[in-house]
Structures are given as C-alpha cells and as structure tokens.
Amino acid sequence: IHRELSKSRPKISRLYGQLAGGKFTDLILEEYDKAVAAVLAITGQKELMEHEPVIRNIIRMRNPFTDAINLMQLETLRRWHDTPEAERGDDLRQGAFLSLVAMSSAMQNMG
C-alpha cells in the first residue's frame, strides 16, 4: 500500500475535484493523509518508500511528466465542460481522447 500511496498526487487530485465540483475531494484527501500517517507509523519510516529508494526516485522522476499531462487533461476537460455539446468540434474530442490515452500510457502500472 505504501507504494500506491507514494504514487498519489494529492495536489493534482484536488484540481480534478475542483473541476468536478469538489464534493468529496476534501474527505478523500483527509483519508489519504490518515492512511499515509498510519503507514509511516506502522513501518517506522519518515517518508513513504524510504526503504525502496530506487522505486521512490523513479516515481519522483516520473511525476513532473505526469503532472504536465494531468494539467493538459484538466484544461481539456474544463473546455469540454464549458463548451455546449453541439459546439464540441473534432479538435476538442480528439484532445480529450488523446489526454486519456497519454495519461494511461504514462501511468502504465503506476496508475
């Protein structure tokens, strides 16, 4: 579980939550913080993945790239939501589709 928690991006999650209305975002992120604290207490680590530095560094190196894809996807989704359905052109549809494919590819088994 510590590996999955370390892959999470709470700040990015908050942005998705804001786009969706943010109903449950605060609750989910509070539970995330509790889970991280519990894992650290149980394992005696100061940070997640402390005992697996190679994987921790791979995740850290990957994050700027997946963050950029997430931000592009958020902008595409914002435009999708703000554009009436009848006015959504092929460019917007293709952008939405490509953002999903890009994120799926970037995350692979790390999503």
Structural commentary:
- By secondary structure, this protein is mainly α.
- It is built from five helices and no strands.
- The protein has helices at about 1-5, 10-20, 25-45, 55-80, 90-105.
- The longest helix is centred in the middle third of the chain and has 30 residues, at about 55-80.
- The protein is elongated, with a radius of gyration of 17 Å.
- It starts with a helix and ends with a helix.
How do the strands and helices of this protein lay out in sequence?
Blueprint: H1 2-7, H2 10-19, H3 25-43, H4 53-82, H5 90-107
Protein traits:
elongated; mainly alpha; 111 residues
What is the average of the pLDDT values? 89
Radius of gyration: 17 Å
Number of helices: 5
Topology as a string of helices (H) and strands (E): HHHHH
What does the overall shape look like? Answer: elongated
Class of secondary structure makeup: mainly alpha
Secondary structure: number of strands: 0
End-to-end Cα distance, whole Å, is: 13 Å
Fraction of helical residues: over 70%
How many strands, which pairing sense, and closed or not: the largest β-sheet?
none
The low-pLDDT segments are: none
Share of residues in strands: under 5%
